[in-house]
Amino acid sequence: MKLIDGKLTAAQIRAELKERTAEFERKYLQKVGLAVVLIGSNPASQVYVRNKIKACEDAGIRSFAHYLPENVSQQEAVSLVRALAEDQNVHGILVQLPLPKHLNAEELLQEIPFEKDVDGFCAENIGKLALQEEGIVACTPLGVMELLKRYQIPVAGKRAVMLGRSNIVGRPMALLLLNADATVTVCHSKTQNLIEECARADVLVAAIGKAGFVTSEMVKEGAVVIDVGINRKEDGTLCGDVDFERVKEKAEYITPVPGGVGPMTIAMLLTNVVNAAERARK
C-alpha cells in the first residue's frame, strides 16, 4: 500500500504558484487577485475564508475580502458581485457558501462571469468540461486528477467508479475521468448491486459523506482508492467515507483523511485563480 500525500503535494503546488505569481507581477506590473465574498457570520465559513486568504498571501495572490452583514439584500449582494466582475484587478471571484436563507444563491452565482468563476460551478464551465473545452474545473475533482498525475497513476483504459453524484464533486469528477479515457461508472443511492459495482473498480473515488461507508469487500485487490469524504466522529476526530484501516490492506494506493484530498482543494482554487489571470492577459 502506498499513501497518497495530499498535504505534501499541495505544498509543492503552492511553491510553484508563488513563482508563477511573481513572474506575472514582473511581466504585467499587476498582482494576481482573488475577491472573496462572505455574507453573514457562519463560523465554519469564517474559518474557510480565513484559510483561503492566508493561502492567497502565501502564494503571492492579492485577496480582496468583502464581508456583508447577515441581513444584506439580494440587490446589494448582486451589485457587489457585478462590481467585482468589472474590476480588472480581480481575476477570480469566490462567494462563500452557504448563504443566509433569504438570499438566492443560484441567482448570485450567475452574476460571476465564467472566466472569473474559480470554483468552476457555473453552467458554462461545467458545459466546457463536458465538451472537453478549456474552462475552469471544480477544485476538488481537479485536485484528485492532479494527485493521480503527480503519483503517475494511469487512468486511461482503467475501470473507474465514482461513488456519489453531487454537482460539486461526483459529476465533474466522472467527466474528468471520462476525458482521461477511463471507463466510468457513477454509483449513488439508487444503484443496484453497489458492492459488486465498486469491487470492479481499478480506481474508486468516494464522495458521499458517510463515515467509513466503503468497506474492504467493496474494494478490488490492488485498486486505487481516493477518499473525498470529510466526516466528524463523535469524539471530534475527522474520518473519510472509506474504512481506511481495513481498505488499506487491499489498495495499492489510498488517500488518508485528513491530509489527502482536502489540502488539494485550496491548492487547486489558487491554481484556478492564477490560470484565470494568465488567460485574462492573453
Describe the structure.
The structure is a single chain. The chain is of the alpha/beta class. It contains ten helices and eleven strands. Strands 1-11-8-7-5-6 form a six-stranded parallel β-sheet. α1 runs parallel beside α10, α6 runs parallel beside α7 (170-179) and α6 (139-150) packs across α10 (262-281). The protein is globular.
Q: Which helices and strands occur, and which strands form pairs?
A:
Elements: E1 2-3, H1 6-28, E2 33-39, H2 43-58, E3 62-68, H3 74-86, E4 92-95, H4 105-109, H5 123-130, H6 139-150, E5 159-163, H7 170-179, E6 183-187, H8 194-199, E7 203-206, E8 224-227, E9 231-232, E10 238-239, H9 244-247, E11 253-254, H10 262-281
Parallel strand pairs: 1-11, 2-3, 2-4, 5-6, 5-7, 7-8, 8-11
Antiparallel strand pairs: 9-10
Helix pairs in contact: 1-10, 6-7, 6-10
- What overall form do the CA principal axes indicate? globular
Strand order of the largest sheet: 1-11-8-7-5-6
Q: Could you give the count of β-strands? A: 11
- Poorly predicted runs: none
What portion of residues belong to β-strands?
15-25%
What Rg, in angstroms, do the CA atoms define? 19 Å
Cα separation of the termini: 43 Å
Average pLDDT figure? 96
* SSE string: EHEHEHEHHHEHEHEEEEHEH
Structural class: alpha/beta
The largest β sheet comes out as: 6 strands, parallel
- Helix-residue proportion: 40-55%
Count of individual helical segments: 10
